[in-house]
Amino acid sequence: MAVLWIDGPDAEHFLQGLLSHDVARLEVGSDLAALLLDGKGHIRAGLIVHRDGPAAFTMLADAATAEATTAVLHEYHFSEDLEITGPERSDAALLTGDAAAPEGAELVVGGWIPGSRIALIPQPLPATDGDAALAEILRIEAGIPRVGIDTSDTSLPHETGLVGRTVSFEKGCYLGQETVARVEYRGGVRRHLRGVSTAELLPVGTPLRAGDSVIATLTSTALS
User: Fold this and answer.
1) What gap in Å lies between CA 104 and CA 120, rounded to an integer?
2) Which pTM was predicted?
3) What is the pLDDT of residues 126-170, one digit of tens each?
């Protein structure tokens, strides 16, 4: 994971105008998942936003998209009274079920996988390749896309299955809102992220065919 911080009197208004979810409704100590879109409604990043205080937020991003996300924040930061800090890489533990946070965890927030939590830790935990593999299996089984892996620069929120968790249709305008609203109220999308079960593990990039036509491509795979 990577961590960004936004602090200042205008922090809430700034994030409310950029992110797909209703940041203004966040109470101190709570968090939500949101998307950062481009002006045409395409997904740039998936974020977990935690409200540290009335004018302070911590945001967790995929390390692979964190630099680009920070660049967008700076691009839209004009005269607002706030400071953007980060991104900084951080070790994180995926918590499922009743698992307790590691000792010394700096922050625990809801995870992308339903029912999970993410704990930020100051020091690396003893980890194995099995930990990362298990997290990946859980993510794929839950159908949670990883931005940049299971999405492209033309992917829309409605194509990913994340709309219900990451988009508010009650808040005002935000970056990419017009496209999201048009898809929601005037028509659907033609592409969808879907899970498939196969008799054997197939590599990423495998095309799926119906007759002579390629109808899909595998973007994430795991042996359940």
Assistant:
1) 9
2) 0.93
3) 655 557 788 899 999 999 999 999 999 999 999 999 999 999 999
Q: Nearest 5°: phi and psi at 6?
A: -130, 120
Local structure of residue 87 (DSSP, 8 states): E
Q: 107 and 95 in contact (C-beta within 8 Å)?
A: no
> SS3 letters for 113-151?
CCCCEEEEECCCCCCCHHHHHHHHHHHHHHCCCCCCCCC
Could you give the angle at the alpha carbon of 113 between the alpha carbons of 91 and 89, nearest 5°?
20
CA distance linking residue 177 with residue 185, whole number of Å: 12
Cβ atoms of residues 105 and 19 within 8 Å: no
What is the sign of the dihedral through the CA atoms of 59, 70, 181 and 151?
A: negative
Distance, in Å, from the CA atom of 122 to the CA atom of 71, rounded to the nearest integer, reads 25
> If we measure between CA atoms, which residue out of 196, 55, 60 comes closest to residue 116?
60
